[in-house]
Amino acid sequence: MDIKTFRAKTMRDALELVRRELGPSAAVLHTRELNTGPLGRLVFGRRYEVAASAGVNVPSRLPEAVNDQGAGSREHGARLEYEVPSTKYESPLGSHDCYSMLQAPSSTLSAVPQAHLEADYRNRYRDDFRQQMVGQLDELQAMVEKLCERANAAPAHDLPESLFEAFTDMIEAEIDESIAREWIEEIRADGDPRAMADVVLVKSRIAQLLEEEVQVAGSIKTGADRCRVVALVGPTGVGKTTTIAKLAANYRLREKLRVGLITVDTYRVAAVEQLRTYADIIDLPMEVVATPREMREAVNRMGHLDLVLMDTAGRSPRDEVKIQELKSMLSEAEPDEVHLVLSSTAGAKSLIATAERFADVGTTAMLLTKLDEAHSLGHLVSLVRGGTLPISYLTDGQNVPDDIQVAQRRALAGMLLGIQG
Ligand SMILES: Nc1nc2c(ncn2[C@@H]2O[C@H](COP(=O)(O)OP(=O)(O)O)[C@@H](O)[C@H]2O)c(=O)[nH]1
Ligand SMILES: [Mg+2]
User: Fold this and answer.
1) Are 338 and 332 in contact (CB under 8 A)?
2) What is the DSSP letter of 359?
C-alpha cells in the first residue's frame, strides 16, 4: 500500500495537496495536528498532517440506502449532506478511522455531489472547532476560579510589604494557606508598627505565635524507681527501628542506663536481624515476641532494667485488623509511652490521618523522622499545631546514634518556618 504524508498550515491545504497529488478518490487514512503544545504553536505555528493513499479501497461512508438508490438520486445525496457517516470519526484534527473524505468511491460518486462532501467536512470541522473552544473555555474558567480562590485566601491587598512577603514565603514553604492568613491577620490586628517594619521582624513574630502553639513532650521519662517501657509505632519504613537504635545507644552509652529491646516485628526476618545487629553492637539484651502472652513474659523478664524500648511492625493506618492486633499486643506490655513515628516526607493530610488512626493504640507523643529528606517542613505546621500529640524527638539522618534530638519548641517552630535558629 502506497501511503503518503502531506503537511500544510491548514487542514484544507493539506487535503488540497492530497487531492492534487493522489487524485480525488484518494483515501485519507489519518490526520493529526502537529505542534499541539503552546510553545510549539508559538514557535512553529499550527501544522496539519494528512496520511493518504490512492491505493486503498475504502468502503463508502454513505449508508447502504444511497448505494442502493444508484446514481442519479441527487435528493438523497443532498439530504445526506448532514448525516453523520457510520464510520468512526473523532475530529478532523485528531485521529480517524479510515475514511474517504475527498470523494466517495466511484460507485457512489454520482449520488453525492462533491460540494456536499465538502460542506459535510466543513460542518464537522466547525463542530470540532466548537468543541475545542468549549474545552478551552472550561479550562480557562477553572484557572480563573483557582486564581479567585487564591486571591480570596490571601489577606487584604492593602497589606504592608513585609506582611505580604512573609505571607507569600509561608505559602512557598507549604504552610497551610488558612494558617498563614490567620497569623498575618493577627499581626496586622496587633497594629504594632515596629513588628511590621520589616519581614525579618514579621517572621520572628510568626515564629513566636507558632512556638506558643507547639506542644513538645520532652525526652523519655526515665527514673531510678522502676522500669519504663516505651514503644515506637507507625507506618512501615518511617524509621522506627533506626530510631530505637539511636535512643538505645544514647541511653545506654551516654546516660549509662540499663536498656533492653523487645521487637514485635516478626513479619520480616530482616527486621528482627536489623534490631539484633544494633543490640549486639550496643551490647543490649533483646527479646523477640510474637504473641500477647510472650509480650507479657518478655516485659516481666526485663522488669529489672531501667528502660525497655519496643520496636513494632509497620502498620498501614488503613489496616484496621493490624491496628487492632498492635493494640492488643501493646495492652499486654502496658507501655508508659507510645511514640508515633512519622516521616516528615509525607504530606500533611496523610500525617494527620495517620495520627488520628494510631490514636486508637494509645499514642502519647509524635516523633518526626527524616527532617533531612523533606523538601520543606511547612506542611508539618498543621500537624504540630495545638490539639494534636506533643512532639518528642526529631531525627535528621541515618547515623546511629547521632542524628536525633529532643524536640524544643523554639527550635522546632523556627525549623518548620524555615528560619535559621
Ligand atoms: N534520611 C534519613 N533516613 C532515615 C532516618 N531515619 C531512618 N532512616 C532510614 O529509613 C529507612 C527505614 O528505616 P527503618 O528504621 O528500617 O524503618 P521502620 O520500617 O520504621 O523500622 C532506613 O534506610 C533508615 O536508615 C532519618 O532521620 N533520615
Ligand atoms: Mg523496623
Assistant:
1) no
2) G
> Would you say 234 and 330 are in contact if contact means Cβ atoms under 8 Å apart?
no
Query: What are the tens digits of pLDDT across the range 231-275?
Result: 999 999 999 999 999 999 999 999 999 999 999 987 777 889 999
Please tell me the distance from the alpha carbon of residue 374 to that of residue 378, in angstroms, as a whole number: 10
CB 411 within 8 A of CB 421: yes
How remote is the CA of residue 237 from the centroid of ligand 1, in Å? 6
Cβ 279 under 6 angstroms from ligand 1: no
Q: What angle do CA 41, 45, 48 make, to 5 degrees?
A: 100
354 within ligand 1 shell (Cβ under 6 A): no
Judged by phi (left if over 0) then psi (alpha if -120 to 50, else beta), residue 58 lies in beta
Residues 30, 31, 36, 41, Cα dihedral to 10°: 140
Ligand nearest to the Cα of 236, by number: 1
CA nearest ligand 1 atom 17, residue: 239
pTM above 0.70, yes or no: no
Nearest residue by C-alpha to atom 22 in ligand 1: 239
**Distance from C-alpha of 84 to C-alpha of 241, rounded to nearest angstrom:** 66
**Distance from Cα 287 to the centre of ligand 2, integer Å:** 15
Nearest protein CA to atom 1 of ligand 1, as residue: 397
Which helix (H) or strand (E) covers residue 169, if one does? helix 161-172
Which amino acid is it at 163?
A: L
Q: Is the dihedral of CA 35, 37, 43, 45 positive or negative?
A: positive
